[in-house]
Amino acid sequence: MKLYCLSGHPTLPCNVLKFKSTTIMLDCGLDMNSTLNFLPLPLVQSPRLSNLPGWSLKDGNAFLDKELKECSGHVFVDSVPEFCLPETELIDLSTVDVILISNYHCMMALPYITEHTGFTGTVYATEPSVQIGRLLMEELVNFIERVPKAQSASLWKNKDIQRLLPSPLKDAVEVSTWRRCYTMQEVNSALSKIQLVGYSQKIELFGAVQVTPLSSGYALGSSNWIIQSHYEKVSYVSGSSLLTTHPQPMDQASLKNSDVLILTGLTQIPTANPDSMVGEFCSNLALTVRNGGNVLVPCYPSGVIYDLLECLYQYIDSAGLSSIPFYFISPVANSSLEFSQIFAEWLCHNKQTKVYLPEPPFPHAELIQTNKLKHYPSIHGDFSNDFRQPCVVFTGHPSLRFGDVVHFMELWGKSSLNTVIFTEPDFSYLEALAPYQPLAMKCIYCPIDTRLNFIQVSKLLKEVQPLHVVCPEQYTQPPPAQSHRIDLMIDCQPPAMSYRRAEVLALPFKRRYEKIEIMPELADSLVPMEIKPGVSLATVSAVLHTKDNKHILQPPPRPAQPTGGKKRKRASDDIPDCKVLKPLLSGSIPVEQFVQTLEKHGFSDIKVEDTAKGHIVLLQEAETLIQIEEDSTHIICDNDEMLRVRLRDLVLKFLQKF
Amino acid sequence: MDPECSRLLPALCAVLADPRQPVADDTCLEKLLDWFTAVTEAGSSLLLLQENPCLVELLFHVLKSQDLSSRILSFSLRLAGIFAAQEDCFQYLQGELLPMLFGEVGPLGGAAWTAPAVRSGWIQGLRTLAQHPSALHFLAACGAVDTIFSLQGDPSLFVASAAGQLLVHILDLVMRGPAEGRRSPQACDWPACAQKIVGHIEDSLCSTDIPQVTQALSVLTTAFGHCHGLWTQGLWVRLSPLVARLLEKDPVPASHSLVDLLLSVARSAPSSDRDLWETLAQTLSHLSPTQAGPLALGILKLQDCFIHRLPKDRRDSWSSPAQSRAGFILRTCSAAFCHLPSGLTLWILGHPVPQVLRTQAFGILLQPLACVLEAAAQAPGPPGLLEGAAADSMMVDTLLSSKSACVGLLCCALAHLGLLQPLPQRPSPWPQAPLLGAAVTILRLCSGSAAPTSDVGGRLCAILVGCGRVQRAALDFLGALSQGTGPQELVTQVFSVLLEYLVSPESSSMVLKKAFQATLRWLLSSPKTPGCCDLDPHTQLFLRELLPVLQKRLCSPCWEVRDSVLEFLTQMTRHCGGQAGFRQALLASEVPELTKQLLRDPESYVRASAVTATGQLSSWGLCATPAIPECPGAQQESLLVELLHILSTDSEGFPRRAVMQVFTEWLRDGHADVAEDAERFVAGVLQAASRDLDWEVRAQGLELALVFLEQLLGQRGSHCPYAVALPETAPPGVLDQALQVLCRVQLFEFAFRALFDCDRPVAQKSCDLLLFLRAKAAPCGSSQEAGDSPNVASVEATLQRWQAGEQGQPLGYLEPGAVVALLRSIDLEGLRDTLAESSDHVEKSPQSLLQDMLAAVGVLGENEADCY
């Protein structure tokens, strides 16, 4: 059993598990941190961005000044943003049988895998994951395609040139594999390969293994997966949450008794409690708005935004913010808000019960109804007519490199009355803000990450008790900036196995058993013999029939009647030779009694020596040696076959035959 | 006993003796026992029984009846105890009744004994009864002591505890006689009963059964805590070797009880006892760090400071035997001693706790903190901290053994040191700087901002990070340390860690509250710049950083947080409102405006705090900047209007009460906007308050009215409640004018209405106010004429209706003359005396109790009849 680690990002995993002749890809997350090296794509012409000076080498050489621009001491690539794909060379991805998706954030690389690697398998995901994943992809494609950029920079990727660049460009890894965003056509094609599954549904893969999605409590339709055969169980835990937010709660019980638990997708900000962060978010939002400033919240169009809107629903009236407009701007804003209301079966119990009242499960429906929350596909069109300040704007993309957020950063960045509040934990907010410097607006970082923290993981592992834990290497040591925080790492026994990008792990357990069925007529013919209390044995002569990873013992064909040997046998009639088997022996030889028996039968001068594995009985007179070990007995004598047979028979007296 | 009660008693006894008529509740029986106790204390029990034979009949009946409830049986046992407490009555009952009640033939051997109430009643009965030598003989004769021994291990904790106390009581009773006048009698002289009890305690102390050891230790603790005869010294001499032997066991059994005992002995020991100090020292070193903490604190709290107040020549003339009881009394009243005038000479007993022992005890309290400091030290080397309390490996092991052990130990150490800090007998020199350092380090470990390099430090950090309990304890301790000084560098660190907690989103609301409290204490104790009454530069710098935090916290979605900020702001403004640095920083921030916005907060507690805070800010002229620069009063006036609006419309009581307090304070302090037209202000406020459903608002309205009265007519005189000075009368001219004003603001309508208020405190306050007014109005001569006018008659009629509960009709406009007449005609003194009685004084009478009990049974009887 092997694990091929195609992504080093702990929360955007992409691993391939080879297990019992199946090749299973676990998630295909797309690392978008690479986009932070690029200049933002403004929706409206930005004189500031277009007038940034080109970057030149220390010696004044300016051959890169078309590709690289400098802003407040940082260098950015002036090109269409590109993404860092999972490893494609470590394993032939066309051999992947299935892809299991955990949540909509972990499927963003799907088009790259399904459309460009010869992949012919099936993708399994829950319906909300697919629908919301589609929205995320659609938004991404839309953000990038609606601001076409003529220029494509590639010179800087040359290894010799990259070495000369300042950080972080200099340290960017595998830049040659970075790719532009996929197209909508590729998205549709990739999504068409998905087969929808429900929680606890058992899916057979070639008869060899069974995969089952379990609720992980992190997002709508988010799953952990159980991959099991008859005697082995691998659990794959991706983004999971134990907090009471909108999704169905996490199913922990089904993870028990795993041989291997692959653990990914823990919180990226273990020191920030989501509840505290929500409080911080509300306080800063209210403070800004009360002072007449605007609030910008860069966010994804689904996920935490639902919870934030719910908190604000409860908070705005009490904080006297009822008259402040809330805008949600995304090409998929409408679909996201509506989808959230129709996936009732995937929601937590409280929200499910609302559906039967009937009431919309999320209160943002009421915010929309009362015109407190308005949503628009983009800043163009209706929004520009309705727009009034001070206001709160939720919009993407959290990287601040594309999407409507770029416009608001340009618009509001100059005033210290305004505030940008980062709630998504995927990007470093300081790096995200780098191309907007100098910036007058206030920046607040309240990352809300509801995924498991290390205390919860520790409790979970104690509860489910896997034999082995496998996780990204980042989880096996404290964060580099807080090396003393030994509480911020996985602490389990035996220590967790760690992996990093492009590594292949041999998982630490051997398959010891395989289930084989016996045909009833064969079973009828068996005569078990009790060799010790509670243990019976029977010899079986049969033909092992294996098809679709199922093994069946069938009765051996009867020996062919001699038909005179005239007829030619067809190849398919070949039957295995059934030799007459000698009886099998069992039991152990008590040395003292054996020596007494030897003496009774006239052997004298007997010496017994203990060895590491058993005993040696020396018949000095007969110059013979009997080695008795746990699973073998050897009689070594000098060409005296009569003596050997006599001794053999004496040995056999102590053993059972069947 | 009054005749009416005597008349009711036979019926009640019949009810009690009747198993078919269950008594409604236990409280009636308890009240009945209280009443009998009072009656027997006031007179002869024997006479009582002779005059009311139904009582003895009841006791006999209880013994005979098989199906009486355990409550009645228990009651009877206790009742018999009350009667038999007087020796003559004891003799009267001893022949038959008492042995049957308390002896082996009584409930003791029967099925009723299984009820804990009966066992408890038996013990309490004996406890009350055992007051005289005859009782001792009775106890010995009926073998009660052995039963008490067995009841010490009773499954009911109340019974077990009462059994222990009874043993001590008997022991004290037995020993008081022979020990009196003799010093420390030898054990061999002790009476048999005492020998038996002490022997039992000795056996228990030697037992391997820990509960038995605990029982013995508790009995001894009670004995040394409550008995002050010299015999206790003898007892300690006899038992201390056995107690010391407990320390040889590992782990020390019943350590909590042992600590209690040793502290009890130490507090009661009349003279220095080297053995005791040695035992204490040994105990400190044998107990685990967690167990030793309370003992260490107890040792350090032992009083020995009064010895210094004695003139030296008097010390030599002490006579030990005579001092023992007085010593105890003085010790128990130690708190009062602190306030004794310095000239008063005290003679005192006891010797100081040896310094070595105090050092050892203090070391125990300091050790966990020393350990933390050492573990978190950035660089190795001699830390020079907490001298004599270097962290030992046992302490480190305890701290790291588990999260609960670490948290428990640190919280206890912090709490103990916090308690010790303000005491006069705290160790000296007090290691203020290391303790400050330790508190700061613990808080940093808890927040995760400390970066210890050592292995122990790392593990401590992992255990403590995010631990709210330790954070709260450390913040409390840090606040307590604000009373002392510290090096500037450390004080800077204190403010920095406090700011860290105030800023951190991870601080829970409780932690935040504690952080605000500690911050306030440190800010208020920070030194003033020499020659200037303003804040020192460090504090000003801190304030500048603090105010943005306050702004954010005022917008918190958590109401507890908003409330804490407002409380902090109120206190800060109250103390620093006049200081330029504070004023500048506050006015440059948005805090005043945000505070004002919270007057409309959805949470009533927050609204109340916002009212208090804005009131305080306004008093200092720190309210939100006027919206219209040309009209500086506009904003303030709007605040007054807004507060009046809250007073009239807020659905919750807290904000309305807060408004009344603010208004009273404004009126008292002469707030500019109030002083502008105080008459209109008072009229408006009283009108709103009179309609309020909350009695506290109405009472506060009277407080405001009184302030107004005092401003018009002069002070009430001394505020000392024990002063007998009568208020001075006002000159007639002033009085007439004042009465005119008071009539215009309708203060009398408000006060008279309050006089008949259904809530007693309101009526009392109103009564006081009117009495004050009457005293001021004494020389007014026009009263007689006014008193005869039809206006007065109709007002009196209205007031009578009000008194009867019909308060619908208004009083109408009152003339000053009519008011004075009314004040004279109403029996205010009588009313005051009636109001001074507790509201249930009628219902509390024994007669009422007996009637109620009979009535309750009567009702039950009717129901029973209905059933048939």
Automatic annotation (TrEMBL), chain A:
Report the record's Gene Ontology biological process terms. Answer: negative regulation of transmembrane receptor protein serine/threonine kinase signaling pathway; regulation of cellular response to growth factor stimulus; RNA polymerase II transcription initiation surveillance; snRNA 3'-end processing
- Which organism's genome codes for this protein? Neophocaena asiaeorientalis asiaeorientalis (Yangtze finless porpoise)
Q: What subcellular locations does the record give?
A: Cytoplasm; Nucleus
**What does the subunit comment say?**
Component of the Integrator complex, composed of core subunits INTS1, INTS2, INTS3, INTS4, INTS5, INTS6, INTS7, INTS8, INTS9/RC74, INTS10, INTS11/CPSF3L, INTS12, INTS13, INTS14 and INTS15. The core complex associates with protein phosphatase 2A subunits PPP2CA and PPP2R1A, to form the Integrator-PP2A (INTAC) complex. INTS9 is part of the RNA endonuclease subcomplex, composed of INTS4, INTS9, INTS11 and inositol hexakisphosphate (InsP6). Interacts with WDR73; interaction is required for the assembly of the RNA endonuclease subcomplex in the cytoplasm.
Protein name (record): Integrator complex subunit 9
- What biological function has been recorded for the protein in this entry? Component of the integrator complex, a multiprotein complex that terminates RNA polymerase II (Pol II) transcription in the promoter-proximal region of genes.
Its family? Belongs to the metallo-beta-lactamase superfamily. RNA-metabolizing metallo-beta-lactamase-like family. INTS9 subfamily.
Keywords assigned by UniProt, alphabetized: Cytoplasm, Nucleus
Is Transcription one of the keywords UniProt gives this record?
Answer: no
Identify the GO cellular component terms for this protein: cytosol; INTAC complex; integrator complex
Give the InterPro entries listed for this entry: Beta_Casp, Integrator_9su, IntS9-like_C, Metallo-B-lactamas, RibonucZ/Hydroxyglut_hydro
Q: Where is the Beta-Casp domain?
A: 305-433
Region entry Disordered, spans:
548-573
TrEMBL record, chain B:
Q: Does the record carry Cytoplasm as a key word?
A: yes
Which SUPFAM superfamilies did the record assign? ARM repeat
Per the record, the major location class is cytoplasm
InterPro entries linked to this entry: ARM-like, ARM-type_fold, BRAT1, HEAT
| Short name of one Pfam family | HEAT
Swiss-Prot/TrEMBL GO biological process terms: cell population proliferation; DNA damage response
- Work out whether the entry's keyword set contains Calcium: no
Q: Where does the record say this protein resides?
A: Cytoplasm
Q: Which family does it belong to?
A: Belongs to the BRAT1 family.
GO cellular component terms, alphabetically, are: cytoplasm; nucleus
Q: Spell out the protein name for this chain.
A: BRCA1-associated ATM activator 1 isoform X2
Q: Which UniProt keywords apply?
A: Cytoplasm, Repeat
